[in-house]
Amino acid sequence: MSDIGIDDDPDALTNQDPPEHTRYRRIMHGTFTPRRTEPWRPRIARIAEDLLDGLGGDFDLVQGHALQLPGRVICAMLGVPVDRYE
Questions:
Q1: Is there a domain that residue 35 lies in?
Q2: From CA 61, how far away is CA 55, in angstroms rounded?
Q3: Is residue 78 part of a domain?
Q4: Would 33 be classed as within a structural domain?
Q5: Tens digit of pLDDT for each residue in 35-67?
Q6: Which of 42, 57, 73, 76 is the most exposed place for a label (fewest CB within 10 A)?
């Protein structure tokens, strides 16, 4: 895995300024409404539990869970096989 993080990627949505950021937000706006995301709640809970179960005894919660969860959820939504998440 690369040492380059999302903070280093100028094309990442979180690092963009208007008008690029605004354009992408407008495109995604209807996708992440409560009504459209509610069906994903059980799957997201399973992903979160799996991440917690895999932490072991000594861990960094941010690195091992908080940073992993969004990417894994997005992979699941896009149909990326689990063995390809990394």
A1: yes
A2: 8
A3: yes
A4: yes
A5: 988 999 999 999 999 999 999 888 888 888 888
A6: 57
Using alpha carbons only, what angle is made at residue 52 by residues 51 and 54, rounded to the nearest 5 degrees?
65
* Residue whose structure tokens are 């409560």: 34
Instruction: Write the pLDDT tens digit of every residue in 1-43.
Output: 456 666 778 888 788 899 998 998 898 888 888 998 899 999 9
Q: In percent, how much of the chain has pLDDT > 90? A: 34
Domain count, the chain: 1
Domain that holds residue 13: 8-84
User: Is the C-alpha dihedral spanning 51, 49, 73, 76 positive or negative?
Assistant: positive
